[in-house]
């Protein structure tokens, strides 16, 4: 048995986190002594014995002997153990890939194992169940609940972070029927959103491209605290690089990233608010006593860069130690001059022209001074990590020049600014314009790599907008994505289901008018078959005791429900999908629960291995999910035997 496993991340995940009907069913199982029922209940009055026995001889889902005998062997109860003769088996799977895609990322397994490993009722919980069930329920049931745990339950599952497909069991849960029944709701709950949001993240990653930094910014818009924490964990698993969610950073070690908000920018009004203006050089060798003036000086220099150098008067300004010669003052606007005038000594010969120019206006004056002050304050607080939100007033007329002035001043002191965030407007256009501005500065002022200054974009981004941005061409390096990502706006739930596939070794099938809802019975083995080029070709389910597919040996893979769909596959690699993650009392080898980072790597690798036509957004090719010929025959035999024959009158 594995070492002690912590409880679920969310303390609300307890044995009570289930639907009432699981308790009423558990009571009814208990009342009819079926909760631990170990009978070999082999009864197939409608079955064609000859056919069934020949199918089962090889499939071995049920001992063929019993069918030869055609016996109803009556109930024998082994109340203390579930694994004597038979077991109850449920498959947890989904029927359709989300978001119109053809793949899903399996997530949430670790939390399931944490629940199972710690599954015990407290006295308080038992009292509550007792108060919630009809008073006619016998007290012996509560004694039964008192002693149950999951030591008799076995979990086989696909590794978390794997790319998975409809109908293939993600988990097989075996154990006493009453206990496993209680697990249905929490397990489905733990897998559903986790897999959905991990898939959503993977899809956003696919559109954004490998080289982009993806930041999950969804906490404020997530569906409650658990939605927010889960989103951060599973978006990271699905390929995001970092989160803004601090609690998730602490809980799971996810890298934290962030910028600042519009409120920070608009909270500043004047440079008087900056009381400490000094900033040390990055190497600590020197101190710039007035970083504010240095920035102001750079702003003026930047503005001049845009002006016609031939024109008008000559002015020389000096700000303390720093001297600038302006060949054009026409574009100087009132605002900035008013702000500067007390700091500026205008040399005699240029004075008149300088004052005249105040009235003329121009590009320079467009920058918003309170925004500049906000940027300066942020840079003084984080000189090594300066990143500015540049769309509070006007991106190109204010935010970008202000950012550049601050960054260039930082550069003078040996720091390199991280970049800007755009949070409104045409993100493609603004990113391209910003990039041009950065490149022009690199060229003109010989600032190494300034052209590569980072551009982060946010604002209601989703797969579609990422795709549109790609088509238009953009210069964005990082995307901050919230609402659409974490709420799974495009599809709010993944239809994960939990279906009984075998009880006491007897296969069960759930029929439906809708063929896609027919369950695949029996304890199964599942394999992924890889082709010559290294891509996964098909997933195949077989009966538990069928020989596994072999490398280089042709195997017939059949669509589980469509007779005409089948293909021979010669696998170059065979991977068994279901592994034991909770051995119950068998104590056999259990897969380790890997750290989140390792699961993320698995996820990224597996997504990278998929053939591109399965991954594309528009009309992706369905990945083939199949059954062996024997399992196919068995499913259909069982189907015919379970479905009543209609009568026409
Ligand atoms: N180039 C683009 N192509 C396609 N969609 C874009 C592009 N640029 C931005 N978008 C998207 O267009 C939408 C614009 O949102 P909205 O209409 O709220 O405007 P806004 O720029 O946010 O304005 P506001 O100043 O009111 O915040 C967002 O979802 C954004 O992601
Ligand atoms: O747009 P999302 O994908 O949800 O990304 C997160 C958003 O959250 C913040 O907005 P804020 O809460 O300030 O609201 P607003 O931008 O809608 O005004 C941020 O500026 C992003 O725009
Ligand atoms: O850090 C950010 O920029 C951020 C964080 C959460 C939401 N929006 C933006
Ligand atoms: Mg926004």
TrEMBL record:
Enzyme Commission numbers on file: 6.3.4.21
Domain Nicotinate/nicotinamide phosphoribosyltransferase: 418-517
Occurrences of domain Nicotinate phosphoribosyltransferase C-terminal (ranges): 523-634
InterPro entries, per database record: Aldolase_TIM (IPR013785), N/Namide_PRibTrfase (IPR041525), NAPRTase_C (IPR041619), NAPRTase_N (IPR040727), Nic_PRibTrfase-Fam (IPR007229), Nic_PRibTrfase_pncB (IPR006405), Nicotinate_pribotase-like_C (IPR036068)
Domain spans labelled Nicotinate phosphoribosyltransferase N-terminal: 88-192
GO molecular function: metal ion binding; nicotinate phosphoribosyltransferase activity; transferase activity
Domain of life, source organism: Eukaryota
Keywords assigned by UniProt, alphabetized: Ligase, Magnesium, Manganese, Metal-binding, Phosphoprotein, Pyridine nucleotide biosynthesis, Transferase
Signal peptide start and end residues: none
Pathway connected to this protein: Cofactor biosynthesis; NAD(+) biosynthesis; nicotinate D-ribonucleotide from nicotinate: step 1/1
Co-factor requirement: Mn(2+); Mg(2+)
One of the protein's GO biological processes: NAD+ biosynthetic process via the salvage pathway
GO cellular component: cytosol
EC class (word): ligase
Reaction catalysis annotation: 5-phospho-alpha-D-ribose 1-diphosphate + nicotinate + ATP + H2O = nicotinate beta-D-ribonucleotide + ADP + phosphate + diphosphate
SUPFAM superfamilies: Nicotinate/Quinolinate PRTase C-terminal domain-like, Nicotinate/Quinolinate PRTase N-terminal domain-like
Task of the protein: Catalyzes the first step in the biosynthesis of NAD from nicotinic acid, the ATP-dependent synthesis of beta-nicotinate D-ribonucleotide from nicotinate and 5-phospho-D-ribose 1-phosphate. Helps prevent cellular oxidative stress via its role in NAD biosynthesis.
UniProt record similarity statement: Belongs to the NAPRTase family.
UniProt xrefs under PANTHER family: NICOTINATE PHOSPHORIBOSYLTRANSFERASE
Protein name: nicotinate phosphoribosyltransferase
